[in-house]
Structures are given as C-alpha cells and as structure tokens.
Automatic annotation (TrEMBL):
Keywords: Transferase. It comes from Rhodococcus wratislaviensis. The keyword Transferase applies. Residues 229-372 form the Thiolase C-terminal domain. The keyword Repeat does not apply. This is Acetyl-CoA acetyltransferase.
Length: 375
C-alpha cells in the first residue's frame, strides 16, 4: 500500500469514528511501498499527525490483532489516547521500476530466500515453500491423528460463502456455493481444495482504538478490548514442536482469563481463515470444542449469520477476500461491526461478545482478542 492509500484509509477510519483528527496521538502499522525503514514516522509525517506512540508490527496475518491489543495496552498505560491501527494490503499489483525490479519475495511465502537463512539452505531447495504446501502438511498430519473429514472442512467454506452473499462488499457477494462445489474444485495441495484457500484482492483496513473519554464522543457503540493473548513459537514449519498444537491454545487461554469469560459466553467468532484447516484447528485450540472433534462440531452447527454458531459473518478471507496482511483486520472489523450493530443484512440478533483470532506465518504467530459491547 502507498502513502496516499494509507492517508485515504486513515481519513475514512477517523471520519467513521467521528472524532477530531488532532485527537490521534498514536499509530501502529506495517510495511508500505515507499519505505522499508522508519515506517511509522514516514506515515505520521505524511499525515501531519505527530504522535506519542508509534510501532511497527511484523507478524503477518496477526498484524491487525497484534496492533489492536498493543494500542489498548498503550492507552491503558497512559501513553496516548487514540491509536490509529492501519494495515496495508498486498503490494504485488503496484508498479515497480524496470531498472531495479522488486525481488519476488512473495513466491516464498513465510520462508526467507535471503542468503544464510535456514529456509534458503535446507527447505526451499526441497520444496517446503510458500503457504499451500506447509498448510497441506498440517492438514495431512491432522488427518493422520484424528481422521480428515473433507465434508466438514468444505462446509466451513460453504457456510462462509453464505455470509459473504449477505455482505455487499465481499468479493464473492451473490455467488453461492455448496459443499459439493468445494469438494469438486481442484486440489491445490493435497488435501486442500481451491475453494478452501483465501481469495487474494487489493485494499487495506484499519480501526481506531481510543480511551473511554473519546469513545463517549464517537458516533457508534464502542467495542471494548477486554481480553487478549499472544503466542509466537517458530517461523518455519520444520521447527514446530507439534503440528497438532497451535499457539492459539496459550493465546486463547490468556484472553479468556483476562476477560473473565469462557468460550460458551461468546456470541460470534471471527477466525483467521487462510485455509479451512486453520479455522478447524483454531476452534479446537481456542476451546470451543475438544481437540480432534472439530469436524463433528462443524457438522453439528450452522456457522452462518442465521445459525447457532455464527462464524466469520462477513464471509471471512475465503469469501470476502484477503488484501494481504490487511486480511487479518477483516476479522477485527467483522466483530466490531457486529457489536456496533452495523453488519447490515448479516447482523446477528444479539452480539455482545466476540472472539477474534489472528494467525501469522504457518500457524506459528497467533493472537486471540475478546471484544465486548457495553455491559
């Protein structure tokens, strides 16, 4: 994302919140097209908004959830009053100079092709590359341990597509699919089908995290950050201690304990969904069902906005779209809109508590958020 796009996104976020731009005194962001260093200062200089708190996060798909809890913590410590959390989208479609073309780093996903990295020497030459292959390895390992229910995994994608069909901004708005459609789509990396993989798109996303005084001035019902947890364990799948235990287990336990609630008190789950297996394992490790019973849980529940266990009510990244690292912010926005009562046709009858997950790398950087309305 470019500085101009960041400025447009920031102005829309601040306008939507209904507070004065000069109230913003903190910023959290990640990579932008114009600079690889001093990114927060580059942005605040462009926006003309000097801040008391600035941070750059580098946790991939967990950037958004990481930014939200860091903003809340900074406000709680009294460092600032209003933190703009803006996450740029994918940069692949941006023009690049012909005399100095950009390195094709996106080909390698979470792996590093830089000289001297363990991935460049021991993994990339042997095909452990990108995202599809390692996530398929996780899915195969899960299947070996608990059985792989292709129907249940496909149901996740189909139910989320139903949600996208009630969300006009979704990439797949109006394009319904069935479980059979998912299972009939091409295998990308065994056992993952094409319709079980995120849909890349362009864009960005952001939120404004403010203190109680500024929240009272906002035009909308606030969503309070009442709990969070973070766990980062490794980078490469080759160094994961156990493919069947994700960092979400520890992150979710901390978030629920902080909020003083349990999984049974959640009205909405908005889970990072780069692949359907990610959703299934997050349901288990976050405590919504026992490990190994995610498929049964999915089969027994309606995951649509009309159902008994609403999940990714705006469509998730599988059907709303994944704008690069901003895809993680989609889940924050999904939950916040539901709590505010601004989800349109996909609005739940009741949404006072939401669980949001962030996932970076190969199930290796995970964050849990608890967001709640006024209690």
């Amino acid at each position: 994302m470019t500085l101009e796009q960041i400025a447009l996104l920031a102005s829309r976020v601040i306008e939507d919140a209904g507070i004065e731009p000069t109230a913003v005194d903190g910023i959290i962001t990640t990579r932008i097209a114009e600079s690889t260093k001093f990114v927060p200062s580059t942005i605040v200089e462009y926006l003309g908004l000097p801040v008391n708190y600035a941070e750059f996060v580098d946790l991939g798909g967990a950037n958004a959830t990481a930014g939200v809890w860091r903003a809340a913590a900074a406000i709680e410590l009294g460092l600032c009053s209003a933190v703009l959390v803006v996450i740029p989208g994918a940069a692949e479609s941006l023009p690049t100079p012909t005399r100095r073309p950009a390195a094709p780093t996106s080909y390698f996903g979470a792996s590093s092709a830089e000289f001297g990295s363990p991935q460049a020497e021991f993994e990339i030459p042997y095909g452990l590359i990108g995202q599809n292959v390692p996530y398929a390895q996780i899915a195969r390992r899960y299947g070996d341990a608990y059985g792989y229910d292709s129907y249940a995994l496909a149901k996740i994608a189909a139910d989320q597509r139903t949600n996208a069909c009630a969300t006009p901004d979704a990439v797949f708005f109006g394009k319904k699919i069935t479980v059979e459609d998912v299972l009939a789509s091409p295998i990308i990396a065994d056992p993952i089908h094409m319709l079980e993989v995120v849909m890349p798109c362009q864009g960005g996303a952001g939120v404004l995290v403010v203190n109680r005084e500024l929240a009272a001035q906002s035009k909308h019902r606030p969503a309070w950050v009442t709990g969070f947890g973070e766990r980062v364990t490794n980078k490469s799948l080759a160094y994961a201690k156990d493919l069947l235990v994700t960092p979400m287990e520890a992150a979710a336990q901390r978030a629920f304990a902080m909020a003083n609630i349990g999984p049974g008190e959640v009205d909405l789950v908005s889970l990072y969904d780069c692949y359907t297996i990610t959703v299934l394992m997050t349901l288990e490790d976050a405590g919504f069902c026992p490990r190994g019973e995610g498929a049964r849980f999915v089969r027994e529940h309606d995951l649509t906005f009309r159902g008994d266990f609403p999940l990714n009510t705006a469509g998730g990244q599988l059907s709303f779209g994944q704008a690069g690292a901003a895809g993680g912010m989609h889940h924050v926005c999904d939950a916040v809109r539901q709590i505010m009562g601004r989800a349109g046709d996909a609005q739940l009858k009741q949404c006072a508590t939401a669980f949001v997950s962030g996932n970076g790398g190969i199930m290796s950087e995970q964050i849990a958020l608890i967001l709640q309305g006024e209690r």
